[in-house]
């Protein structure tokens, strides 16, 4: 396996564990976005460009936007 893929796998594991541990919700959303982008890179390394594009668009794009909007709405409701 390539050294780049091994490094990306290490970052993927670190980000997966970090999402579970982080108490700050916005921080967890940001780390989740990083997780999705790393996953998209790994899909590209595995010669699955269609899955990589979908992961980048849905995982890092739309899901992150929905999480941030939901967090904003929840914080607005607490006031």
TrEMBL record:
Keywords: Cell membrane, Membrane, Transmembrane, Transmembrane helix. The chain crosses the membrane at residues 51-71. It comes from the Bacteria. One of its GO terms (cellular component) is plasma membrane. It holds the Pfam family MbhD. InterPro entries: MrpA_C/MbhD. It is a multi-pass membrane protein. This is Putative monovalent cation/H+ antiporter subunit B.
């Amino acid at each position: 396996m390539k050294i780049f893929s091994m490094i990306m796998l290490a970052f993927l594991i670190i980000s997966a564990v970090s999402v579970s541990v982080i108490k700050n919700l916005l921080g967890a959303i940001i780390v989740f976005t990083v997780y999705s982008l790393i996953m998209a890179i790994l899909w590209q390394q595995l010669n699955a460009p269609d899955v990589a594009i979908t992961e980048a668009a849905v995982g890092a794009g739309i899901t992150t936007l929905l999480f941030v909007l939901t967090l904003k709405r929840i914080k607005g409701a607490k006031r």
